[in-house]
Amino acid sequence: MPVTVKTFATSSEAAAALSSDRAARFLGGGTLVMRALNEGDISISTIVRASEQALKRIDAAGARVTIGAGVTFAQILSQRDLAFLHAAARSIGGPAVRNMGTVGGNLFAPSPYGDLTVALLALDATIAMQGGLGTREVSIEEFLQSRDRQAGQLVLSISCQKPASLDAFRYRKVTRIKPKGGSVITIAAHLPMSGGRIVGARIALGSMAPTQIRAKGAERALEGRPLEASTIAAAAAAAAEGASPANNALGSTWYRREIVGVHLRRLLSGQE
Amino acid sequence: MSKTALQFRHNGREVAIFVDGGTNLLVALRELIGDMTPKFGCGQGTCGTCSVLIDGELHLACLTLAETAAGRAVETLDGLKDGPELHPLQRAFAENFAAQCGYCTPGMLMAAKALLDRNPSPTRADVVEAISGNICRCTGYEPIINAVLAAASGSRARA
After folding, report:
1. Residue A35: which of B4, B44, B115 has the nearest Cβ?
2. Is A38 close to B43, i.e. CB distance below 8 A?
3. What is the pLDDT of residues A119-169, one digit of tens each?
4. B8, exposed or middle or buried, with CB in 10 Å at 0-12, 13-18, 19+?
5. In whole angstroms, what is the distance from residue B159 CA to residue B150 CA?
6. What's the CATH code, domain B88-158?
7. Residue B27 DSSP SS3
8. CATH entry 3.40.50.700 includes domain B4-78
9. Residue by residue, what is the 3-state secondary structure of A38-85?
10. Is the pLDDT of residue B157 over 90?
11. Count of alpha carbons within 13 Å of A238, Cβ hemisphere only?
């Protein structure tokens, strides 16, 4: 069924069009919206696009990075200043999907997708959004909790502090297909160290709930402690706390619960 | 619903078509331009057989809104050969038995071209990565990987 395509020069006009039409969807890289159209999703009657260049901007020179919602995974991989996100970006799709899919769209990608969002959740990212009433910033955790009610809002950019060191930020995506495929489980860990102890531990999980979640039990087990075997074992034991894992062809709910601690332990202890 | 006029370069030739709103580039290429080389596999961005190059970058035509190709250069498998001469990648695919049923071949060739355009001397791991978005259910991938490596070393030998 044909849909109406509306292209705007600015993101504020695009946001206004989104907020005034419940059947409108914003088109980023197309990997979600065009796929829905190809599948015959009749809930979409309008596609909204914005040609504003700010959506493609990357500001990564300082300690805090801001990535435009329209930046693709391939663009992240071409930026040395975003090296901490390279493992997550590389774990997504084949080259074509990485040339198309965007950071903003990834926030809305349902399980088993949305791997970059797992990394951004572990980094306590902030989302800048434009609605009918103006722009606002929300934490990524708050954004994900109300993701299904974000209709009529346009994500402008995502920002976060760079991890203190590359070793303080770790990422692992477990797949069945090699070299890569849909996520059985995705884990990102941010472990800032101060005086030999972890301060501000963040563990984020993908495919362990309808949206990406923080493993708060594991975070508590790590907080204020040195990264040693007993701490890691306690975090692994608490990894599935509060999770309601996906049950799909890639893995059952039971299986994901069983292996999340194993993979968290391996990630934290630096094993392959 | 009104149609939208759309112009872009298709394998070096300017084309102008009218598309319905929401038409994807694969439908535009196959049904409106008549280029049947990009195939429809899944329509979900999973199989890769609709892969084309847009301004030299590998894209999935089935997930590309046709209008976003306006003013850009789209290359498909149809543009790979030079008159009667097959492209070195096509010759390498034939010589290395890299095609069985052939359905994935258009996407594999475009993904391989995207790789070799950027990196003329890829490692085996580079090739595996480059075709990781393309599914082949016949060959087990090994002959395809070998063909891409053979095309790369053949091109280096001629250079």
Report:
1. B44
2. yes
3. 999 999 999 999 878 899 999 999 999 888 777 889 999 999 999 888 899
4. buried
5. 14
6. 1.10.150.120
7. helix
8. no
9. HCCCCCCCEEEEECCHHHHCEECCCCEEEEECCCEHHHHHCCHHHHHH
10. no
11. 18
Q: Are A148 and A108 in contact (CB under 8 A)?
A: no
- Helix or strand run (H / E) with residue A213: strand A213-214
Distance CA A111, CA A105 (A): 13
CA distance A31 to chain B (A): 6
Q: Do A95 and B114 touch (CB under 8 A)?
A: yes
Closest CA to A161 of A69, A77, A84: A84
B16 near B5, Cβ under 8 Å? Answer: yes
pLDDT single digits (tens) B46-63? 999 999 999 999 999 999
What gap in Å lies between CA B147 and CA B134, rounded to an integer?
15
A53-161 under CATH 1.10.565.10, yes or no: no
Give SS3 for B123. Answer: coil
A and B: number of Cβ contacts within 8 A: 89
Residue spans per domain, chain B: 4-78, 88-158
B36 vs B157, higher pLDDT: B36
Average pLDDT over residues A234-243: 97
The CA distances from residue B29 to A37, B13, B77, in Å, are 18, 13, 12
Q: Do A179 and B132 touch (CB under 8 A)?
A: yes
Candidates 3.90.420.10, 3.30.870.10, 3.30.390.50, 2.60.40.1180; CATH matching A170-268: 3.30.390.50
Q: Map out the domains of chain A as residue ranges.
A: 4-50, 53-161, 170-268
Closest chain B residue to A93, measured at CA: B133
A35 touches chain B (CB under 8 A): yes
Structure tokens, A118: 């797992």
Closest CB to A5 among B22, B111, B134: B22
pTM for the model? 0.96
